[in-house]
Write a sequence for this structure.
C-alpha cells in the first residue's frame, strides 16, 4: 500500500530557522518527498499536519497543500484500482508533470506482473533476478530508463566482475536488461535513439560442455538406489528429462496427470509457449506409472510443486531444483562421473547425442524448442511429431 501524508520535515532546518513542508509518499521502507514550496517554525505547525492561523496566508497555503495531497491520493487510488505497479517515485514524478520519465524498476515490475499472469515463470524469474541485481548495484536508489546509457552499462558490468560473476552470468543479466529496454521502446516510453546497446556490446563466452556420454548415462540409469529415496527421485527426474527430449525442469514441475493421454505427453513449454506432443517410451511410462499412481487428473506428476500461488510455485521449483542438483552430484560421485551433474545436463546430453547420431539439426531444434534460433527456424515446419518420435527413440536408446 502506498500512502500520502503532509509532514513538517524537521530533519532539515533552513537559515531562517524554519522547516520545509513536504508531501511524503511511503510504500513499506520506500520514501519519496515533494516540496510544498513553504516552510514554517514548529510553533506555526498544527498537530493535524497543517499550518496554524498565526502563519501568514495560512488559509491559502493550506488549500494549496490539500489540493496537492488530494491529487496524490487520487493518482494512487487510480493505480491501485487498475492494478498497476506504482512506487513513491512514480507518484512524485506524476505530480511534477514528469510522467515521461519512467522508473526502470517500476517498468520491470509491471512486465514481471504481465509474465506472471501469463504463467511465464521462467521469463518472470529472469527479469526479477536481473532487476534485483541492478537494485543491489544502485543500493536501492531509483533508476530511470533514460539513465541506462553506455557509461551506466560499463559500470554495471565492472560491478558484476568485481563480485566474481562469470562472463555468461553477466551476459544473461545484460541481455535481460536489454530486453527490458527494448520493451520500453516498443511501448513508446523512451526514444529509439540514442540506443545504448549500439555502443555497449554484450560479451558472451562459449560455455563448458555439460553433456555426458552414453556410457555415463547408463551408469546413472543402472545405479542401485532405494526406491523413493531422495537420490532415486532425483535420478528418475534426470532420466525422464533425457527420455523426454531434454524436457526442462520447470515444465516437468508443471506437468499434470491429465497431460498424459493416448500414449503421448502433451505440454506447453513455459519459456517459449511451444506446444509439445511427445510419444511416451517404455522408459518414460515406467517412471510415469510410479509417480502418477493414485493421482487425480489435476495433480502434478512429479513431487516438486507444493503450493498454489504463483510466487510460491516459483520458489518450490527453485528449491527442489537445487536439492535435485545436490543429489545428482552425489550420484555422479558414486558412479565416477567427473561432470558436474545437474538437471540441465540431461538436456545437453540429449542434444549432444542427437548431433552425434547425425539427427538433422532442425529436428534437434524442434525437440529442444529453440524456435528463436535463426539458423534452425527454416527447418522447424518440415518435421512433425512422427519424425521427432523416431529421432527420440534413436537418441535415448542407451
Amino acid at each position: 500500500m502506498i500512502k500520502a501524508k503532509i509532514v513538517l520535515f524537521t530533519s532539515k532546518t533552513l537559515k531562517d530557522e524554519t522547516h520545509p513542508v513536504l508531501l511524503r509518499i511511503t510504500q513499506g521502507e520506500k520514501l519519496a518527498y515533494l516540496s510544498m514550496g513553504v516552510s514554517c517554525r514548529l510553533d506555526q505547525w498544527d498537530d493535524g499536519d497543517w499550518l496554524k492561523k498565526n502563519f501568514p496566508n495560512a488559509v491559502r497555503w493550506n488549500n494549496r497543500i490539500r489540493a496537492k495531497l488530494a491529487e496524490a491520493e487520487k493518482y494512487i487510488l487510480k493505480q491501485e484500482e487498475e492494478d498497476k505497479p506504482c512506487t513513491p517515485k512514480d507518484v512524485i514524478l506524476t505530480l511534477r508533470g514528469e510522467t515521461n520519465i519512467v522508473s526502470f524498476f517500476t517498468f520491470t515490475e509491471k512486465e514481471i506482473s504481465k509474465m506472471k499472469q501469463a504463467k511465464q515463470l521462467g521469463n518472470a524469474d529472469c527479469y526479477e533476478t536481473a532487476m534485483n541485481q541492478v537494485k543491489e548495484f544502485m543500493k536501492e536508489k531509483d533508476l530511470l530508463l533514460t539513465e541506462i546509457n553506455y557509461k551506466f552499462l560499463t559500470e554495471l558490468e565492472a560491478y558484476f566482475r568485481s563480485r566474481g560473476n562469470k562472463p555468461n552470468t553477466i551476459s544473461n543479466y545484460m541481455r535481460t536488461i536489454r530486453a527490458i529496454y527494448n520493451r520500453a521502446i516498443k511501448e513508446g516510453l523512451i526514444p529509439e535513439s540514442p540506443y545504448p546497446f549500439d555502443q555497449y556490446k554484450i560479451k558472451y563466452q562459449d560455455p563448458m560442455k555439460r553433456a555426458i556420454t552414453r556410457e555415463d548415462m547408463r551408469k546413472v540409469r543402472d545405479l542401485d538406489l532405494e526406491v523413493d529415496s531422495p537420490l532415486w527421485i532425483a535420478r528418475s527426474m534426470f532420466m525422464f528429462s533425457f527420455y523426454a527430449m531434454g524436457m526442462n525442469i520447470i515444465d516437468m514441475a508443471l506437468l499434470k496427470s491429465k497431460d498424459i493421454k493416448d500414449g503421448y505427453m502433451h505440454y506447453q513449454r513455459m519459456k517459449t509457449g511451444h506446444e509439445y506432443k511427445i510419444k511416451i517410451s517404455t522408459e518414460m511410462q515406467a517412471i510415469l506409472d510410479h509417480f502418477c499412481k493414485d493421482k487425480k487428473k489435476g495433480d502434478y506428476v512429479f513431487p516438486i510443486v507444493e503450493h498454489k500461488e504463483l510466487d510460491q510455485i516459483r520458489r518450490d521449483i527453485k528449491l527442489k531444483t537445487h536439492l535435485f542438483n545436490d543429489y545428482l552430484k552425489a550420484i555422479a560421485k558414486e558412479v565416477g562421473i567427473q561432470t558436474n551433474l545437474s538437471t540441465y545436463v540431461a538436456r545437453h546430453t540429449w542434444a549432444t547425442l542427437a548431433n552425434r547420431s547425425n539427427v538433422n539439426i532442425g529436428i534437434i531444434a524442434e525437440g529442444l524448442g529453440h524456435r528463436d534460433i535463426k539458423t534452425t527456424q527454416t527447418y522447424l515446419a518440415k518435421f512433425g511429431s512422427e519424425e521427432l518420435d523416431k529421432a527420440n527413440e534413436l537418441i535415448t536408446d542407451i
Remarks:
- Residues 22 and 36 are 5 Å apart (CA to CA).
- The chain has three domains: 3-95, 104-199, 214-395.
